[in-house]
Structure of G-protein alpha subunit:
Amino acid sequence: MGSSVSRVRPAKSAGQMHSDALDSIIVQDQARLKQVRRILVLGTSGSGKSTLMKHMRIHDGTEFKETDVTLYRSIICRNVIEWAHSILLLAKKDALVFEKGYHRELADKVLDFTLGNDDEREIYLPNDIAEAIHQLWNDPMTANSLKEHAKELNLELPTYFFDNIRRIGGPTYRPNRSDILKTPETARKPGLREMKINMGTLTIHLLDPSGQRSERRKWIHYFEFVTSIIFCAPVADYDQARMTESFNLFESVINSRWFLRTSIILLLTKMDEFKQKLPKIPLEKSFPEYTGGADVNKAAKYILWKYMQLNRARLSVYPHIVNVCDTNVSCLVLAAVKETTLQNWLKDSGRL
Ligand SMILES: Nc1nc2c(ncn2[C@@H]2O[C@H](COP(=O)(O)OP(=O)(O)OP(=O)(O)O)[C@@H](O)[C@H]2O)c(=O)[nH]1
Ligand SMILES: [Mg+2]
């Protein structure tokens, strides 16, 4: 029979007990801090939600996988051909510009070209078609006409992709970060995109549902347990009906009973477009009570003020002005998320 030895622990001193109690509070606090924070990215269609998510992926070091890159290549090539066709069809009516034989030939060559229905991974833009677009886009005789028609069709992106068309042509083209950030995702399936980012003790779960009107009624499924909302508000839309849609959407989100304890990061997006547009299309045209002229800061602050007026529920709103195509945006957003997370935690734990 083995003998059992009972061990009697020595009594803890008052100081040790106090220290243990403190340790346990710290462990509990760390566990709370480790909670996953669900952050919902909301905004109208085209407000920059998915572009923001792409930035976050790059920041997080989750580089785009090879399959993603080839998929973006096919989206870019299809977009380029679609834009080129729409613009050229209109531009060809400018008979004077296209009466030169070689201009007409180049335009017809591009218009006759289609990408076909091959496996998306195999899609690429042949060098001779890229070269034809390059020549038309850069020839002083045709460039103005093409650029005017791009504006008429409200196409802002062809400028970037057409300026880079020689790089985009050919089977070895791999879209770079900037190409991927600038690619609209409308050709992709609507639905939820999500990602998790680890920030020290925090895990942030970002959810990006589609902002298309028909998809918005599905948002409610994601509303539970949301700690913050990033609302993308495209300032450059100030002269479009989309602006009213964005105000209405913000109003319904911020005053919703679902978000009584949620903090909102309000991102004013598309600042780069806003800066270019403001001198040409005065803000006063859409908002007659605005008196700040073409001063970008005053104009952006005015739009921000319009959004803040809708905050009847008096939620905590943290506004930021960003250009979503700027690569520093992810740092700014992560800093804002950290700040709001900390504020929420301090409030919840009664320390604030
Ligand atoms: N110039 C500029 N373009 C931007 C900015 N943010 C987004 N875009 C472009 O706007 C287009 C639409 O952006 P998305 O991020 O796909 O918009 P979304 O909010 O996800 O739209 P839905 O998925 O339809 O709800 C893309 O072509 C982006 O490259 C910005 O700050 N500046
Ligand atoms: Mg999207």
